[in-house]
Batch of 3 targets.
Target 1
Amino acid sequence: YASESTVRSILLSVYTRKERVDDELVRAILAPAADPAAAEVFGAILTGEPGVQPRELVSRVRVPILAIWGERDTFTPLDGPTGRLFAQLARERPASVAMRVIDAGHVPHDDDPAAVLAELLPFLAAHLKPQPCKTVGLRV
């Protein structure tokens, strides 16, 4: 049962910066649950095929990958299978997979946006090459 108190409690368990869990975030998380098809969708998620596994998915990606991981992520911990996989991929394929660990929880981009940007911007600068703009000939 999705209630404000349940959602708030779960969010507080995955955010390291508790002040980031405000009424607006709780409402945003709860909003999809109000959809008439929400129960059916949730059931399909729980009973459906799991989909492509992370290792296979990463092998399909043709651009550099930056995984920014929250050191205090309790849902997908660093020492869990997915965390270990990305750490291994970063060691094996440093030119195509990078992993950065920051002091955050499960949602580092919202938990500590400044720390995520501090990792993301240099990564993008290193991997994005200026391309000519085809419409007016400018470089972007």
Target 2
Amino acid sequence: MSIDTVDKVIEQVGLHCETNDLKTFEFIFHGGEPMLISKEFYKYFVAQAKEKLPIQTKLFFAIQTNGILLSEEWCKVFSELKIEIGISIDGYEESHDKYRINHSGNGSFHSVMQGFKVASESAYLHKIPGVLSVINIQSDAEKFFYFLKEYKVQLIDFLLPDCSYEKLPLGYADGINDRTLYADWLIILFDLWFSDNTNGPQIIFFEQLVKIIIGIDEGFEYIGNRKAEFLTIETDGSIEVTGSFKVCGDGFTKKGYNIHTHTLEESLEDDLAQRYINGHDNLCSKCQACPIVEVCGGGFVAHRYSKHNGFDNPSVYCLDLMKLITHVQNKVLDYLPIEFVEESELTYLSFEELKYNNI
């Protein structure tokens, strides 16, 4: 990203914060691999943001990296700039190296874990980096959990593989049918995590799911009913919705908006941006009739896309979400005080009944 584009990003973000009287704003440096750019880029970006954005807007900065280039010098820079580090790790070696390979065609696990070790032990950082992992149902969920404990991962979040009805996820290539491969994998992991009495990892996806079920959280992009709050600005200044929508088709996110020629307000008014922001609204009739819609929220909006119906479909992961949510709710109910259960009107759920009634 050029300096001219950085300056324009800061200018437009400042205008957006002022227009909407925002109290907080977060910049996330993503990729590709965002550490391929110089340290001076980050120093300039953060300095300009702090100088130019409204004083009443508290700024947060984060970077999502594969971690291979992490060094003590980089850790010092990120610490000074208060940039939180997230590292993409898809589990233990065999799981990670299934899809994370370097330019030589070799797995990147050992290089990534070396970067994780550097950051975890850095004298400049005050906490172990968080981990982001794409679910691989070919991996062993139990082995994955103990990998997290072995490497003392303190915080991890999971992503379901990007998919739509035009590009079904691994395991569903010949149709969705009654399979729940992703729920089955997550349930194994959830039960291990939920019953673990040691200082195990904080798994954001599970924590938020439990909080939504008991009514103390609104959710996020995947589940619940909270509005989405992210836009992507590419290196050339193009403004797009999150890259997960690219799975819907070639050029799907290319709407012609650019930070050099449009305001963020203009790009946010685009139909696709509005569909993303309000992704848990305007659900299909099947979703609206489902008893767990307040928890599920229809799932992530891109996972509902088909050429035939647009976004007017249940999620590709509908049965997975249904099975996972019913399992988690039933498990949580076993541990809640009776008074709370009665007041909240939570009840035990049967996945088989929900599935039968929802078909």
Target 3
Amino acid sequence: MKQSTISRPKWIALVVFIVFIVLIQLVISYSHSIETWYSSGLYPFIANTLRILLGWLPFSVGDIGYMITILVFAFGIVRFFRKMFKRKLSWKRSGYNFFRIVLFLAIVYVVFYSFWGLNYYRKGIAFQLNIERKPYTTDELMDLTKSLAEQTSQYRKSISSNSEYHLDKSELFGLAKTAYDSVQQTYGFLQFKHKSTKASLFGVLGNYLGYTGYYNPFSGEAQINMKTPDVVLPAVVCHEMAHQLGYATEDEANFVGYLAASHSHNKVFLYSIYLDLYRYAASELFVRDSSKYILVKQSLDTLVKKDLKDIRDYKVINVIYGQYLKANNQPQGIDTYSDVISLLMAYRRKYGKI
């Protein structure tokens, strides 16, 4: 006979996890403490441990975990409605199942924030670099976009053939790790140990789920959608590795990815990251002043324009992921990616370069 009575230990477990949830909600208001004690203290230990345990495996443990979870939930839902339709489901049993779901969600919530999620509330890269985000004028944005367009075109011209774009997994992930090893010489807090970057098992399905890559906080793996256009992949890998370092918000992961990729000696990595930044800057310039945007766009190398068209033709659905970002201290959702421009402006003001 199946259990339908909630035992005392399970009630205690639920209460304990609810207490942890309350504590998490209290802690997120203290960004300086999170930066000091969690993001620069406890989190690196957690992340490195996960990467040591799972990084050596050639497949994505996180993807498999998500697949199993989805299948179990789907099976449970189908079973629930079948029993309800046949009127074989008692109120007592329904209450027990509801309790199990609540306990499971509470555990997931606590583990998520303990393993990574608190990084959404850290002081972040601007604090570490001692740069300040400030409002900027359209002329300043125009100047930045022109500079990015020039560098993007320059790096594109250095690539002799499209075949150079295509990097196999090991080469792509290895070059990204080398880029982080290089940037660490300038910014020691970007030290990256124990690579754990995997090709996502979801493949083309990832295009419809709305991601080019994602970080799995439960396994510590950076998952890369290898069905993404080749020219985008280096920027994506550096972005996801930034998430692994604890830069949770999309704008910070973009910026840290830029810092790493711009220290690479590989021309495809350099082109990929500057093309990525150009797209964000150009999109904002178009919204502010479309005539200025057209002037900059006309200056692009012909092959850059072709690459941009190929990227536009690559379709992803961002609705679900946008809602996830809004739930985690990023109210602009998917638009948060373009906030990297304010960080780039602040960095340029301080160092006079990008």
